[in-house]
Amino acid sequence: MDEVRLGIIGFGGMGRGRALEAVKLDGMRATAVVETREEARHRATTEFELEAFETLDEFLDAGAADAVYVATPNKFHAEQTVRCLEAGLHVLCEKPMAMNAAEGERMIEAARRADRKLTINLSYRATGPARAARAVAEEGLLGEVYFARTGWMRNRGIPGSGWFATRELAGGGPLIDLGVHRIDLALWLMGHPEPVAVSGATYEALGRRLWAERGRDYQVEDLAAGFVRFANGATLSLQTSWATNSEWREDMFTYVYGTKAGIAHRSVGGTYDFEARMWGETAGTYSETKLEPVRGPGHLEAFVTAIRDDGPVPVPPEDALQVQRIIDALYESARTGREVRLNG
Ligand SMILES: NC(=O)c1ccc[n+]([C@@H]2O[C@H](COP(=O)([O-])OP(=O)(O)OC[C@H]3O[C@@H](n4cnc5c(N)ncnc54)[C@H](O)[C@@H]3O)[C@@H](O)[C@H]2O)c1
Question: Does the reported pTM lie above 0.85?
Answer without folding.
Answer: yes
